[in-house]
Specification:
Elements: H1 4-22, H2 32-42, H3 44-51, E1 63-67, E2 77-82, E3 85-90, H4 97-104, E4 108-110, E5 112-117, E6 120-125, E7 133-135, H5 136-158, E8 163-169, H6 171-184, E9 196-202, E10 208-209, H7 210-221, E11 226-230, H8 248-257, H9 265-276, H10 278-300, E12 303-304, E13 314-315, E14 320-322, H11 341-346, H12 366-370, H13 372-383, H14 385-388
Parallel strand pairs: 3-8, 8-9, 9-11, 11-14
Antiparallel strand pairs: 1-2, 2-3, 4-7, 5-6, 5-12, 10-13
Length: 398
């Protein structure tokens, strides 16, 4: 009997170790509450910029543990913690020139290689496939950020936090996806094997070619540990320029002759033109990338990038959740029509005074479709309608 306490302690220790390494608080699958929490965190930067504080938008239970300094191309990230869950939250594009250089430096470079910044080497790997290519601007952004990111992950680990969500809106969403791929291919001992990662990216531009995305999807999306939330009316997730040469004619001509499939003439013209002009476009992108890199060097110092691949074929990451566009109070293009009896007689209005002829109203702008706050309200509308119904109208203008 004297061995019973020792045996019990050993069993409890073994069970604890097993539970720590086998069970994760981050469950596979899309969870609307997780998505809502993440887009609220993404709005922290907007609130701080506009009001100087973000308490109003932060979800309950999340404590901000760290805000990085501005790093590299005006990038920044925050670290949050809620119980045993950690969050890496990347800031999106800012209005600074160098931030937009990160976006438009869209030449595709190999998914494995070396970037040198002021003589300091960043050895990166985002995929195993040698045909995989990555957005050079976002790879460079991560080159500046990676040391601080790894340091903060280790701090979370030291606090007993191994389940980590990576999130971001716009440019921040692209960095979130790329960070997940980067973590996957780090050499042993760079990060603890106990770590479990999940991604919620919002409104992000594309991060690489079809080979990169196929591998990313197989590793993370099929396992339901990475999600991309977009508003189809938002143009940013369709950038940079892309085409699909392998299935272009088959998919579009099938839609053209089919009664059941919707034919998108504008998409066909855009993609067809891209294929016909791809060599000229590719050369333009390469030259433009070289020019942008020189501009970055003027701002931040010497940078040596890998040679770009001879392609411009970007692809969208999997597990896409489509959200509705934002709803704004209707605004007339010309308010004087309300004083025109002839126009009023010819254009009936409903019980709420809304004209049936919607062409008299201003359309939602491109920037409104992209704003992080409107992604927040879109998630409320779809998954939390009771909260959407009472959201303060004054906040729609963010």
């Amino acid at each position: 009997m004297k061995f019973l306490p020792i045996l019990l302690a050993v069993l409890l220790s073994a069970n604890f170790s097993f539970s720590q390494t086998t069970f994760s608080h981050l469950q596979p699958g899309f969870h609307s509450q997780e998505a809502l929490d993440m887009i609220q965190l993404c709005n922290s930067y907007t609130y701080i910029d506009l009001y100087g504080y973000d308490k109003e938008i932060l979800p309950k239970g999340y404590k901000k543990r760290y805000t990085s300094p501005v790093i590299g191309m005006d990038n920044m990230f925050q670290i949050y913690q809620k119980g045993n869950i950690g969050v890496i939250n990347y800031r999106g594009s800012t209005n600074k020139k160098v931030s937009w250089m990160e976006n438009i430096n869209s030449a595709i470079i190999p998914a494995e290689g070396t970037i040198e910044i002021k003589g300091k080497t960043f050895n990166y790997k985002f995929a195993n496939d040698t045909a995989a290519g990555v957005h050079s601007g976002y790879a460079l952004g991560l080159a500046y950020l990676h040391e601080e990111i790894l340091a903060q992950v280790k701090k979370l680990n030291n606090a007993g936090v191994y389940d980590i969500i990576i999130t971001g809106h716009s440019q921040g969403g692209s960095l979130a996806l790329l960070t997940r791929a980067y973590f996957e291919h780090l050499p042993n001992r760079k990060l603890s094997e106990k770590n479990s990662f999940k991604v919620y990216a919002f409104a992000q531009p594309m991060i690489g070619n079809i080979e990169l995305i196929k591998e990313y999807n197989a590793k993370f999306c099929k396992k339901e540990m990475s999600y991309s939330l977009i508003n189809p009316a938002d143009m940013v997730p369709m950038m940079p320029l892309s085409y699909n040469d392998s299935s272009f004619w088959r998919s579009h001509l099938t839609a053209l002759i089919s009664k059941d499939k919707e034919f998108d003439k504008s998409a066909m013209l855009k993609e067809g033109l891209t294929i016909l002009l791809q060599k000229k476009l590719q050369g333009t992108v390469e030259k433009f990338g070289e020019s942008v890199t020189k501009q970055i060097e003027k701002e931040l110092g010497e940078v040596t990038m890998p040679e770009p691949r001879k392609e411009i074929n970007y692809a969208q990451v999997g597990n896409v959740i489509k959200l509705p566009p934002p709803e704004y109070p209707l605004e007339l293009k010309d308010s004087t029509i309300l004083e025109d009896p002839v126009f009023l007689a010819d254009n009936p209005r409903d019980a709420n005074g809304i004209f049936e002829n919607k062409s008299v109203y201003k359309k939602t702008s491109v920037s409104q479709n992209h704003k992080p706050y409107n992604y927040y309200t879109a998630i409320l509308k779809v998954y939390f309608p009771e909260k959407y119904d009472v959201v303060e109208p004054k906040l729609f203008g963010l």
